[in-house]
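User: I'll paste a sequence; please echo it back and then give the predicted structure.

Assistant: Echoing your sequence first, then the prediction.
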Amino acid sequence: MKFHFLSTWAMILLRFSRKLWLRVSLFALLAVLAAAVSILLEDQIPAALKDRFTTDSVMPILSILASGMLAVSTFSLNVMVTAHNAAAQQATPRVHRILLADTTTHTALAVFIGAFVYALSSIILIKSNVYPEGSSVLVLGFSVAVVVLVVLALLRWIHHLSDLGSMDATLAATEAAARACLVRTRRLPSLGAVVMTQDTVIPAHATPLTAHATGYVQFIDMPGISERLKSEQTRVYLYARPGDYVIEGQSIGHATGLKDRETETITRRFTIGPHRTFEQDTSYGLLVLSETASRALSPGINDPGTAIAVICRQEKLLLDWAHADPKEISPLFPRIFLPDISRHAMIENAFGGAARDGAGQIEVALRLRDALGRIADAPDTDLAKAAREMSTRALAYADAALPLDSERTRLREASGGISFLP
């Protein structure tokens, strides 16, 4: 299908692929399969190799792998947990779920634990006399391959440890997650549906659609909804977007031309959970970055440099989003209506915290004004308007918080041509 990334199954597979235990289990399974292959191919080994490589030559390598990889795996897990906790304390607790999806960490742990499982299973098979006498050659060959994988994984893991848990790495991972979602929603405004505006007329006889659970809307299966609209006269009008918090039984839309049982099928295409996610929630990545800036500006940390770095990343994300063109001009799902992402919400989530918490620090206030000034010139008129409104609020915050008249004057002179709202 063309729209796999919009379907519930694609979302489930994506989340499943990010599970830490998945790669570990696959590598462990490969280790067991390698041990089984050594038994099956025993008859293909030349007699000269069988005489040269015996069980005694393999056992020391397997013993070192088993004991060493257990220690390395335990150490690596401790390092990962410590780094994630440090990042959550320095940045925001919401960043923990981003770090858990780190594929480099997953791969390194998978290799270490997979090597341990391979070595342990081979030792058990040898000691229980399951292996034929000549299979030691294949076991040795697999062991050498495992050692090479372990060495490569260790080198990559050592390089990765230099950044793991650092503020720069945390900000980069959060920005990457935010950018991926922003790109997806920019390419398909309203997730491919017809953009619902104030001029959209909902028929009076439309059937209400209600939320089937309480929590955040994490994902909307647009292809799944479209497939159930059999009649050409059927229309679905959705109010709730990914990131909205809904209560069970709350109205999240209306539909025409559907029966009661069919409307329940439509609402089940909403994935609702206890926390926000990055698949379709455009503003969530901006909010996580903003929370990091607010944490840096707290009196206990007092790190305006991190706040300025966050503002720079937010500015680049929003400017790239504003200058990108939608991939599809016409709606992919012409019988589904959904509001587009609110530009006011994007600016609020990106800069609201920094405008409030950084108002008393002139360097933060100046950088924020500069960023908002550039966004105010963006081609997206609604985003530009929201940036001007935020700039006006940021100036009011700074007027109340800056201790010196000279700093307030400097900030006003550095407005960058923004026309303030009354």
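Strands lie at 193-195, 207-210, 215-220, 235-238, 245-246, 251-256, 270-273, 333-338. The CA atoms of residues 239 and 252 lie 5 Å apart.
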